[in-house]
Design brief:
Layout (H helix, E strand, L loop, with lengths): L2 H11 L3 E4 L5 H13 L3 E5 L2 H11 L7 E3 L7 H12 L6 H10 L1 H10 L5 E3 L6 H11 L10 E7 L10 E5 L9 H19 L4 E5 L10 H16 L4 E6 L1 H5 L1 H7 L11 E3 L3 H14 L3 E8 L5 E2 L7 H16 L2
Parallel strand pairs: 1-2, 1-4, 2-3, 4-11, 6-9, 7-8, 7-9
Antiparallel strand pairs: 5-6, 5-10
Helix pairs in contact: 1-13, 2-13, 4-5, 5-6, 6-7, 8-9
Length: 333
């Protein structure tokens, strides 16, 4: 069974309510219809019901069974205004401004629904930047207890691949932190291990990636990864983690034997921690496009309740997959 099919089966077992605020995007409408057909989540859409249904009719998709929330007439609006005001008044928020934001920015409305437990999670980003998608989540939901840093990851499922967990990997950070320092990289590794175990259900084996393997190159960029590995080993002794490792040494057993003798991680890694956002973003897109892999994300880890971003180049199928992944995350909150 493909990775995403396993996730969808988990999602069906304890159905969660996922809010979709980008209801003017046709891919979102198509994905919502697919999710309803597959039974992986309850769907809440933010917007004008007449326009949503007109769009569904034009696309010839069936949205029977969705719940539509129109912020202008939602009985919960006043409650959300009060909550947003209290959360942000130290930043100059007024009740008037809170009402204006909630009735014009549907992403913020969706996050508030998650905050108030009127939805279990949110998926957006098909037609918004990562910054616009994540800003209200970080401002309203905050970080989860015991988490130092919110970070982004992709689940990458490579067809006909003998590496990783039967071709399934977690790549981080590919969507949020541009140039994490050594301590932050260690935190990303810990969060990624938890996400991998939750979503993939296998033991995380973590490689801290670099252009160097075990001292083969000298540079401050290498030093950062070496330090991050040392911090992670001290701070999270339960992790199976090693670095610095080049990507081939991390995942290919034959190369690991020559480049990283004695490493318990080299040649076996299924969680790949990239040294910065450039590497992570470029890496996942190359694997997705050239390796014909399925890439789900960028998903968030370390936030109090599930909110996940999408690549603006995503397909409706990608959105349906991230909705299922979000639902599985929500089952554990």
């Amino acid at each position: 069974m493909a990775f995403i099919d396993t996730i969808k089966e988990k999602a069906r077992q304890d159905k969660q309510a996922i809010v979709l605020p980008e209801t003017r995007d046709k891919r979102t409408l198509i994905a919502a219809a697919q999710v309803l057909k597959e039974g992986t989540a309850e769907i809440i859409m933010v917007g004008k019901e007449e326009k949503i249904m007109d769009g569904a009719n034009w696309l010839d998709v069936d949205l029977t069974g969705i719940k539509v929330v129109d912020p202008d007439i939602d009985p919960k609006l006043d409650e959300y205004v009060d909550v947003l005001y209290e959360l942000r008044k130290h930043k100059g928020m007024t009740k008037e401004k809170a009402r204006e934001i909630l009735t014009t920015d549907w992403l913020t409305y969706g996050v508030m629904m998650v905050k108030q437990k009127d939805a279990d999670g949110m998926v957006a980003g098909a037609c918004h930047s990562t910054a616009d998608t994540l800003r209200p989540a970080l401002q309203i939901l905050k970080t989860a207890p015991g988490t130092d840093l919110v970070s982004g990851f992709f689940i990458v499922d490579v067809p006909n691949c003998e590496y990783g967990a039967n071709g399934t990997f977690l790549f981080a950070d590919c969507g949020l932190n541009q140039d994490p320092n050594a301590s932050e990289l260690a935190s990303i590794a810990d969060s990624s291990a938890k996400s991998f175990r939750t979503l993939v259900g296998e033991k995380p084996i973590i490689a801290m990636l670099s252009h160097s393997t075990k001292g083969s190159a000298k540079h401050p960029l290498v030093d950062k990864v070496v330090e991050a590995t040392a911090i992670a080993k001290e701070r999270y002794p339960q992790l199976d983690i090693d670095g610095e490792l080049q990507a081939d040494a991390a995942i290919v057993p034959e190369i690991a034997k020559s480049k990283a003798k004695g490493s318990e991680v080299a040649g076996k890694a299924n969680v790949l921690i990239f040294p910065n956002l450039d590497c992570g973003n470029i890496g996942y897109k190359l694997v997705q496009r050239l390796g014909k892999a399925e890439a789900y994300g960028p998903m968030l880890q370390g936030i109090a309740r599930p909110v996940n971003d999408l690549s603006r180049g995503c397909s409706a199928e990608d959105i349906a997959g991230v909705i299922a992944l979000t639902a599985v995350q929500a089952q554990l909150v």
